[in-house]
């Protein structure tokens, strides 16, 4: 990827406190939901930092365990000083990224992409040539990635119907094939099952092994 003539990117990943994150997984994984939320963030961050086009990963979180674990894989933690919601956290992180890495593009990325493949992320980043670009999630209504070129405001509009909101704001959808892992965010048990089929990262696989062990009364099973 060294010959790609594109600006490197700084990625901003917002992570809720795991005590309240991924509430829709609670019914299926009542004992392991917080661990899964943490694992998703760790695997997403590790995959990000393996992309040739990523300069740095800034994780915006106030969760001390998440902060410890993403730091261990190479991310920088930015406290969620606004503590006012997802878009505000992203704006805060984008401001830090722009100040510390001027001349680099800024990307907001969901923290729940446990099957993320660095090569697919790199392909997406290389395709982000418009002032603002975004990736629509697999259900077709949400957003997993929003990119802004250097000097362009990120203007995040995450939330219900964010795909339409980002497109209405002028962001251009990335319509590559073969980027399923970038689009597979996990909110439900069905989403997680699909991510496991794609191939999740080490942290998520470890938690899923615990889940399977709890279900069968054994320990240390491979995912």
Describe the structure.
The protein is globular and about 50 Å long. Helices cover 39% and strands 15% of the residues. The model is unreliable at 218-223 (pLDDT under 50). Helix 1 packs parallel to helix 2 and helix 1 packs antiparallel against helix 8. The protein starts with 8 loop residues before the first strand and ends in a 7-residue tail after the last helix. The longest helix is centred in the N-terminal third of the chain and has 16 residues, at 33-48. The protein is of the alpha/beta class. It contains eight helices and seven strands; from the N terminus they run E-H-E-H-E-H-E-H-E-E-H-E-H-H-H. A seven-stranded mixed β-sheet has the order 3-2-1-4-6-5-7, sandwiched between helices.
């Amino acid at each position: 990827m060294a010959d790609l003539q594109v600006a490197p990117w700084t990625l901003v990943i917002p992570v809720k406190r795991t005590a309240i994150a991924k509430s829709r997984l609670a019914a299926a994984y009542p004992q392991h939901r917080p661990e899964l939320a943490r694992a998703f963030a760790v695997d997403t961050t590790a995959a990000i930092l393996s992309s040739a086009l990523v300069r740095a990963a800034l994780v915006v979180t106030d969760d001390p365990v998440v902060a410890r674990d993403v730091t261990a894989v190479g991310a920088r933690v930015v406290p969620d000083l606004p503590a006012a919601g997802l878009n505000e956290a992203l704006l805060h992180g984008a401001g830090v990224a722009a100040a510390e890495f001027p001349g680099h593009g800024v990307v907001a990325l969901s923290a729940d992409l446990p099957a993320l493949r660095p090569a697919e992320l790199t392909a997406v980043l290389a395709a982000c040539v418009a002032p603002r670009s975004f990736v629509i999630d697999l259900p077709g209504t949400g957003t997993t990635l929003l990119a802004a070129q250097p000097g362009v405001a990120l203007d995040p509009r995450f939330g219900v119907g964010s795909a339409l909101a980002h497109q209405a704001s002028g962001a251009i959808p990335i319509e590559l094939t073969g980027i399923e892992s970038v689009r597979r965010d996990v909110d439900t048990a069905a989403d997680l099952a699909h991510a496991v089929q794609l191939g999740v990262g080490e942290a998520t696989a470890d938690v899923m092994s615990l889940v399977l062990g709890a279900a069968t009364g054994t320990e240390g099973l491979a995912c």
